Structure formats: C-alpha cells, structure tokens
Amino acid sequence: MAExxxxxxxxxxxxxxxxxxxxxxxxxxxAGLDLWTSLAETLRAxxxxxxxxxxxLPWVPVAFxxxxxLYFSADHEPVLWVVATTAxxxxxxAALLRRSRLFAPAIMIAAVAASFAVATWKTARIAHPVLAxxxxxxSLSGFVEARDIRERTDRFVLRVTAMEAQRSDVRLExxxxxxxxxxxxxxxxxxxxxxxxxxxxxPVRPGSYDFSRDMFFQGIGAxxxxxxxxxxxxxxxxxxxxxxxxxxxxxxxxxxxxxxxxTLDGDNxxxxxxxxxxxxxxxxxAMFISGLGHVLSISGYHMAVxxxxxxFAVRALLALIPGLAAGFAIKKWxxxxxxxxxxxxxxxxxxxxxxxxxxxxxxxxLIAVMVDRRAITFRTLAxxxxxxxxxxxxxxxxxxxxxxxxxxLGLVALVQIGMPNLFAFPDNSATARIAMWGGREIAMxxxxxxxxxxxxxxxxxxxxxxxxxxxxxxxxxxxxxxSALVMPAGLLGLLAAPFGLDSVFWWLMxxxxxxxxxxxxxxxxxxxxxxxxxxxxIAPLIAASLGIIVLGLxxxxxxxxxxxxxxxxxxxxxxxxxxDILIAGDGASVAVRGRDGxxxxxxxxxxxxxLKEWLAADADPRDAGRASLADGVSCDESGCVxxxxxxxxxxxxxxxxxxxxxxxxxxxxxxxxxxxxxxAAMVVDRQRLASQxxxxxxxRGDGFVVQAVRARGTSRPWLPAGxxxxxxxxxxxxxSTAPRIKDATPADTDLQADD
Length: 755
Hints:
By secondary structure, the protein is an alpha+beta fold. It is built from 24 helices and 18 strands. A six-stranded antiparallel β-sheet has the order 10-9-8-16-17-18, with no helix packed on it. The protein has a five-stranded mixed β-barrel with strand order 1-2-3-5-4. Helix 14 (399-416) packs parallel to helix 20. The longest helix is centred in the middle third of the chain and has 26 residues, at 439-464. The protein is globular and about 125 Å long. The termini are far apart.
C-alpha cells in the first residue's frame, strides 16, 4: 500500500520520469524512434489541417481539369452515353457518401468523370465537317460572321450557305478566309466568292500547339484565301438574330475605331483597339520579349482594370451623397455597376473564349462582394475555374487559360498569406515616410509581378519556348501607367464619344501606350533579355503544374513539397533531347541536325511560320530568313542532300528519277512520291506523311525513333479524315540486306554411300 506523500511507482516503471520521456521496462528507447514518432505525428497534424473544413472545394476544379485533360489524351472519341452514365453514377455515389470518410476521394473521382463527360458532350454538340485535303477553286456563298483587321491582310469568318467544289462533296459550315487589306466585307453581309481552301493548320512538329483543335471548337472547318472579287448579294434568307447582333457589335467597334483613328495611328492605334494582329512585328516582338505581351490580348488584367475603375469611380461618386453613403450599401451598388461594365466590355471585345474566362473570374469576385463574401479567396478562384471549364472545356489546353489561372493562383496565395501586411510598418518608423511616396505600392507591385511571372514561366517555356528574365522590370515600368492612365482614359473616351468630347482621352491613352512601347523596347534591348528555352514534353509541364498547385493551395509546411516538385521539373524539362530530323507534314521542308549541333534546313517553299516554330523549339537564335540555315545542303532540280552528325546522308527527293540514286546512297529518303519497294534506304513517303503529318526523328543506333503529330490509331473530330490510319510504327530501322546466295553443293567427304 502506498504511503501518503510518496510518489506511486507502477510495476517496472518509475513514476518520477517526466511525461513523454518514460523508458520501457527493457531499457531506454532509441532516440531515432522518438524522432520518427514525432515526425509522423507532425505529418498527421498537417494532413488533418489540410483536410479541414473548406479545404476540399479548391481541389475540385483540379480534378475537373484532370478529367478534361484525360479526354483530350484519348486516341478516339469516347462513347457519349457510356461516359455520361458513368459520370451520373459516380456523382450519385459521392452524394450517398457525403457523411463518410470516403466522400473526399469519391467527389474527386466523380469530378474527373463529370468533366470527361462534359468535354465529350461539348464535342458532340458542335461536331461539324473538317476539310481533309486542299480545294483549289471553290465557289462559296454565305454570311460574314466576324472580321479581323491585321497588319498585312484582313480576315473574316464566312458561315457557308452554299458550296461547290470539283471532285469533292464536302459541305463545310464555316470557313476562315484571308483577303487583301481593306477588302474584307462588312459583318452581316451576304457575299459570293471563289476561294482556295486548306485543311485547318496541324501542329508543325510533334508536341507543338494544335491550331486545328482550336478551329474545330470555333466551328471552323477550313481556312484559305479569296480568289478574285467578293460580290455582295441579296441573301436568300435572313441571317438570324445572332447575325444581326454580331453586325450591331461590329458596327459599334468600327465606330469606336474610327474615333480612335482620328487621333491615333500606327501601333498606338492597333494597341488601343486591341488589334493585336495589326501591330508591326518589331513592336510585337518587343512586347513579348519584355514580358508585356499580356497587354496585347483582352485578358484578365484588362477585365479586372475595367471592373476596378468602374467600381471605385461609382463608389466615390455615391460617397459624395451623404444620404446614400449612410443609409445604403453603396459598395454593393458599385459592384453591380462594375459587373455591368465588365459584361459590356465582354460583348464589345467579341466574347472569345479567353475573354469569357476573364469575365467569369471577374464576375465571381464582384458577386462575392454583392453577397458580403470575401472577394479574393481560393473558393472564388475555384468557382470561376469550374464555370470556365464547364462552359468551355477546350480552354484547359489553351495557353491563355493555363497562364492566367497559374498567375491568379499565385496572387491569391500571396493575398492569403497577407501580402498587404508584408509592407505595413509602424507610423513612427522611417519606412512610413517611404510608404508615403508610394514605396509600399511599388513593393507590392514588384512582389505581385514576380509571383505572377514565376507562375506563368513553365507555360511560356512550353508553348512559346521562351522566358522573360526582365519581365518584372518591364511590368514595374509600364503597368502603373497602363493601370492609371491607359485604361481609365479608354473608359472615359467611350463615355465621352457620344458627346463628341473623346479626342482628348484618346490622346492621353496614346501617351500611355507610347510609354509602354518605349519600356518594352528598352527592356527587350537589354543583354540577355531574350530567354530561349528548347522544347520539352508534356510530362515536365504536368509536374510543374502539380508543383504550382500544391505550393498555392496547401497552407501547412507541406506546401513546400510543391516547390520541390517544381524545382525537379526544371532540369527534367531542360534535359529533353531534341530531335535529329524534323519533317514537315507536306514533305516540302526537312531540318537535319549536323555536326555543329544546329539544324540545317532543306525547303522547297516559303513557309516562314514553320521555320520560325522549328527554330524557336530548338532555342536557335537564327532568323528564319538567314541564308546560313542552308549551309551544308546540296540541291539540284531533282532534290537535296545534307549529312547527319554521323556523316550519313538525308535526301529530299523531288522527282521520281532521283529516287534510285537517293535510295542507294542515303540513309533516309523523304519524298512525296511513291518510293520503290526495293529502296535500300529508310523512307518517309507520301503515304506516311498523309497519315501521320509532321514527324520528328531521333537517332537510336542505326535507326530512328519516330514521333508523329498524328499517332497511330488516333481518330478525333478535329483531325482530317484519314489521319492516323496508316499502319506505321514508332521507329525506322535500316532495311536488312538481301541474304547472300549460298552454294548448296555438299562436300565430297560429306556424301554418304547411298547419296
């Protein structure tokens, strides 16, 4: 029995050991065991914190996006009723498990299935014919739905009502046609013309951007150019309400453009009217090299500035009326006015997918203000992402969506950790005087530009093969002027235009644009301003995206695991091996890597866009028009030949009579002619190019690993008929030589007596 006042001892254990440091009866516990136990408990605590209330919603759009990505990676079009039934079943299952621990994984799986079904349904809903081969003289008639003004040529979209083409019975719904500058017909007019039509532009190399997919989701089945005069005729039927609306909005844009043109011209006018394609090449290049290219597109920044200026202006005006300011929620009224202004800006700009995405994000923020919710949160971003992906699932694979949401995620994370408080100092400190002169605002702008720039870097490197080392410097120099002068002056110009008092505002807008262009030119001219990155595969980009998402969404120290993943993606992407041979989809251009490590170009046409893309993907600083690109290439009227790094020859055969010589001397022959069956060389012929389009070949031993734009067995609605149908594998190997004829006569000593 224990005595009073004496410590109680349990059997085998001293009761006087401090709590948490007791040893087992068999001896002292290893220090490493305590360390691992403590670490495991810390990790469990972090995981419990990340799984807390309200932490699930931001991950739902991530799962939703994964389902869309899975859809676009499919080899052929899924069966709609199967994927829809699967999605409904999984959503019902998640609803039944809403009070279970399995709800989180169940809702994520359901989100993947739902987005897969949404993307499948969207494709089925807008399905339309896509031109498979070029048509050289096509009679078209139809309504003009849209018009673009560009630097050298204009372009318009024609909704086809009648189409006649020799040796073709395809009937396209919409085509996009280029015309001589100044000859594009008015939106809403009914026209008749002849045109040359081409299939939508396929990727110029494996892994590059697929413009044909974009055109498919825009409802366009072919592109081309007008031949001869365009005749405006009386329509056989009305164009419908949608066409009348398009004509009205285009007329409004033309009226605004006319007012701006009366004050501004050249690049200033093109930038002021958001005519990105009308900007001269030097200014356009300087804007993108400096990191100010986002200003040239109607992006989330423009939408946010428009809504922000209207919000604060309306609120300031209402605050001047004491009765309203004291008795009514003028903040909500201001948010409603900003929402109306953002909607008008959406319609005025043409309501393209990228602009719709910006509007949805802005609208969610303004609605949050109107219902007394925090405006800048992960939930707001999640809701905006879900709306955008549900309305336009194809936006996921577009660089503007990827870059804008990555930048917004970084900025929201910065706000969540208290960015405004990072630069809040006591009033009696010396830094308060700096803040009075805008030091705090400059520091916040610097931090925001840095975070947004870093978040968008992987996507700029993947899609455009470049980074902007001095992007923060350019944004610091230009964006305050754009935000405080260019955009407000533009809004005031719109308001003053009906009264004829808008010229001064366009003039002020032009001053701000000139400053922005000057900053972009200065930054672009700095040493090292052009950051070229060689092309890399999708896997490093997925890893970088995962790192950014984890780094942005998690709140515990577990977020730094995202930084590790992001850092690991950098050497992974930079270590990607570049192909040794690039072959254009039409077989007219071939690039071969020589002993010097550079691409040597064989080309029989003037496709400058293709050459620019090839050189950019190779991080090659040479200009596409430079004559040195063809160094080491020998050509005649029959074809061209150039050596690989190992000395073997690659031949581009232009005539049938050149194939015999090329097959005997070259290691690889590229030709749009039928190759002889006994050709000793490896061959890429017309049949393979028609099936697989552009190719990238990488040496492996004596043969090549082949990457194709159209992989074997692929069949998607935006691919021309016949793509991916050929029986071609992913490699090219030297043909084995014919076996040597052996003498079958047995030796005398081997003959038997009965032979």
